[in-house]
Write a structure and sequence with these properties.
The chain is of the alpha/beta class. It is built from six helices and seven strands, in the order ββαβαβαβααββα. It has a three-stranded parallel beta sheet with strand order 3-4-5, with helices on one face. Strand 3, helix 2 and strand 4 form a beta-alpha-beta unit. The longest helix has 10 residues. The protein is elongated and about 60 Å long. The N and C termini lie far apart (about 45 Å).
Length: about 170
């Protein structure tokens, strides 16, 4: 059960297997078939947390992006290895209360709240592609998996593919 408010969130969780899931329970071959890995309830992952940095490293080596939703820390310590795994995380999902708790615990994180900050973020990989008006710098697509190749073409001119699209969709 989640009761969400703009600056806080109250979550009632029955832990079930959350406490018991460990590193050896993860199927890394299966996980590598995805493009993204998300972990929630960081502070409830009792068995996984001691080796989560190794799990994130393995997932990242497979080419996946990683997001993390810490949720609340029931022990109110706000580290418990969090700073060790953040180097692998692409996106951390936090509410205002969680931001304040991380700041108070002196946990480093980067806050990006708008497209201007995102466009200037130092970890945003960029590529240059051609366009009718010259070269354009744009965000790079998600990471590649081992053995994949990706080609980047130029940006088409306005209307360049209109007839092909109409023909394909019967218009």
């Amino acid at each position: 059960v989640i009761l969400a408010h703009p600056s806080s969130r109250n979550i009632l969780t029955y832990p079930g297997t959350i406490f018991e899931l460990g590193y050896d329970d993860l199927d890394f071959d299966y996980l590598a078939s995805a493009r993204h890995f998300h972990l929630a309830s960081f502070f409830l992952q009792h068995a996984l947390r001691p080796r989560l940095h190794a799990a994130f490293a393995k997932v990242k080596d497979a080419g996946l992006s990683i997001s993390l939703d810490t949720n609340d820390d029931p022990d109110d310590r706000w580290d418990s290895g969090l700073s060790r795994v953040l180097e692998y995380v692409d996106v951390v999902l936090l509410n205002e209360r969680e931001v304040k708790k991380l700041a108070a615990a002196d946990i480093a994180y980067a806050r990006v709240n708008d497209t201007d900050l995102l466009a200037k973020h130092p970890h945003l990989r960029r590529i240059t592609v051609g366009s009718p008006s010259g070269p354009v710098s744009m965000p790079a697509p998600a990471p590649l998996r081992a053995g994949q190749e990706r080609r980047y073409g130029r940006i088409p001119a306005l209307g360049e593919h209109t007839e092909l699209v109409r023909k394909e969709f019967g218009g």
